[in-house]
Write a structure and sequence with these properties.
Elements: H1 13-45, E1 65-66, H2 73-84, E2 87-92, E3 95-100, H3 103-112, H4 124-130, H5 143-153, H6 158-163, H7 165-182, H8 193-209, H9 219-235, H10 254-282, H11 291-302, H12 306-319, H13 322-334, H14 339-352, H15 368-380, E4 390-391, E5 396-398, E6 401-403, E7 408-411, H16 413-417, H17 441-444, H18 468-485, E8 486-490, E9 501-502, E10 508-509, E11 514-518, H19 521-528
Parallel strand pairs: 1-2, 3-7
Antiparallel strand pairs: 2-3, 4-7, 5-6, 8-11, 9-10
Helix pairs in contact: 4-10, 7-8, 7-18, 8-9, 8-12, 8-13, 9-10, 10-12, 13-18
């Protein structure tokens, strides 16, 4: 009779013989399995020292391959740059990366040889899973990318941004009013992250959809920030092994599920907003100039499908939210720790603008110290230390080193922004280093001498951030008005960490609170005088 209960044997010669046979069989097969596994994994463990047809070697780099670099990857890259030099290579699974840590090399490759080093890697997670081949800033060169960039750039040129100046100006005023009211005129400390997020989101929502949100606690604000953070975590250049080990793309991992969910979320959120714009137009309502309206009017001519509409507006909107919001948060984390810098900014604002009106966009050229503060925040706390990597479209040899076709090219911004030759005492927050630099970031990026460029936070070459102009305008209006309005104080019992941060690829400070103390009587009149804006 068979029993479902386990059989228990006592020790003895028979048991020992059986165990020996089983152990021998198991160990033999296990050995074969392990040997096979090791040999199958060798290509993913050790570095592949490729050479060109002429025998030219790759740039030097670490001897092993890596599946991913998760937390604080810039620290690893900085260490490798110090070990292997300003141009080194590293294998992530089956993908070769070449890392640039010097501005001169960045200009040589991304600008001078821009025809070779301006494409993008077609990542499984970012391009195929989340954005379905419709990544405005992350797609390889091709007809779809050219079409999307042409449509988007209608709203990102300097002339186009001027037409939205009234929107950016209004949102900066609303940001300050929200901080003023919600802090009870400085009596309550605030975590300003959601306010910074709404400011950045409303600017992009107006440009994208001709609409805005009324509250920093709006579900749309929360979802947009959540989606931006999730996107950055899933798609960072070192975030997950699924992009570097193709076999993992067939396994139902949690990362893959998160990517598919984010794709559906983009369709749901931005598709609904797109349809809302269409409904307004169909009803005869006058919809202000915006990206969604342009897509609706030209969609048939451009042969855009539903996913084109959703993904183009999603990427356009989210691309301008995370970086701007992150930089504003880093500014608020930094400025309370430097009362002398804050006082110097207040003096400039009082002297140039006065206390009876806000600073406006046209005042930027007359406020060099405010501009210097913004540049220094971007240098010392860039929201992404690696930006969006480039990809080589053909084999190339540089200074006796071989860079094969399809190599991913990464700008190591942390090392570049802490280069002592370019930035003396690079770990110090010192806006004075930018006094005398009267160029905008866009103008600085065009300088012939890369060692004179202000910073590389917006990338470089032909794929420099297309939203650079609007980001500069947003940052100036927000930061100048916060400084005009408030003394920003840290809480004595809650120190702000300037080393730790949240996020893998995108960076925001760890949660913190500050106190917004109104500076003078003109603040109350300015806040009370804000007029509502209708989109």
């Amino acid at each position: 009779m068979l029993s479902s209960s386990p059989v228990v044997y006592s020790s003895g010669p028979v048991l020992l013989t059986l165990l020996n046979l089983v152990n021998t069989y198991t160990v033999t097969n296990l050995s074969i399995f392990l040997v096979a596994l090791v040999f199958s994994l060798l290509p993913y463990i050790f570095r592949n020292n490729l050479t060109s047809p002429k025998g030219t070697a790759l740039p030097p780099g670490p001897p092993l391959r890596y599946a991913f670099l998760r937390k604080y990857p810039e620290r690893v890259l900085h260490k490798w740059a110090n070990t292997y030099g300003p141009l080194f290579s590293v294998w992530m699974g089956n993908q070769l990366f070449v890392v640039i840590s010097d501005p001169k090399i960045a200009k040589d490759l991304l600008v001078t040889q821009g025809a070779i080093f301006s494409s993008r890697k077609n990542y499984f997670m970012k391009n195929e899973t989340i954005l379905a081949g419709r990544a405005l800033t992350g797609s390889p060169y091709g007809d779809k990318w050219r079409q999307h960039r042409r449509l988007a750039m209608q709203f990102l040129t300097p002339k186009a941004i001027e037409s939205f100046d009234h929107v950016l100006d209004y949102e900066a005023s609303i940001l300050v009013r929200s901080l003023y009211n919600e802090s009870k005129q400085g009596s309550l400390p605030l975590d300003a992250a959601s306010y910074c997020g709404r400011y950045a989101l409303n600017n992009m929502l107006t440009i994208s959809f001709g609409t805005r949100t009324d509250s920093s606690s709006s579900p749309l604000v929360e979802r947009a920030i959540e989606h931006a953070m999730e996107f950055m975590e899933l798609t960072g250049p070192w975030s997950n092994a699924i992009d570097f080990i193709p076999a993992l793309q067939w396994i139902p991992t949690r990362m893959r599920s998160r990517g598919r969910k984010l794709h559906k979320d983009h369709i749901e959120v931005y598709g609904d907003m797109y349809l809302a714009v269409k409904a307004r137009m169909d009803s005869g309502e006058i919809v202000p100039e915006c990206l969604a309206r342009t897509l609706i009017e030209t969609g048939e001519k451009e042969k855009l499908d539903w996913e084109d509409m959703c993904m183009l507006t999603a990427v356009f909107t989210l691309g301008g939210v995370h970086s701007t919001s992150g930089l504003l948060q880093w500014f608020l984390a930094l400025i309370p720790s430097y009362p002398d810098i804050q006082a110097k900014a207040h003096e400039e604002l009082d002297r140039v603008v006065g206390r009876d009106q806000w600073p406006h966009a046209e005042d930027e050229v007359r406020l060099p110290y405010i501009r210097a503060i913004i540049k220094e925040v971007q240098r010392i706390h860039s929201p992404s230390w690696m930006g969006t990597p480039h990809c080589s479209s053909e084999d190339y040899e540089y200074n006796g080193m071989f860079i094969p076709k399809d190599t991913v090219i990464v700008l190591n911004l942390f090392t570049m922004h802490h280069n002592e030759e370019r930035y003396p005492d690079p770990y110090a927050f010192n806006p004075d280093r930018y006094l005398g630099d009267d160029l905008s970031c866009a103008e600085s990026a065009k300088l012939g001498d890369p060692m004179k460029r202000d910073h590389w936070a917006f990338g470089g070459g032909r794929r420099i951030c297309p939203g650079l102009v609007v980001a500069e305008r947003e940052l100036f209006l927000a930061i100048s008005r916060i400084l005009w309005t408030f003394n920003v104080h840290a809480l004595p019992t809650e120190p702000i960490s300037l080393e730790e941060y949240e996020g893998m690829s995108g960076r925001t400070p760890m949660p913190f609170k500050v106190r917004f103390e109104p500076r003078h009587e003109g603040v109350h009149e300015a806040v009370a005088g804000i007029e509502e804006l209708s989109c």
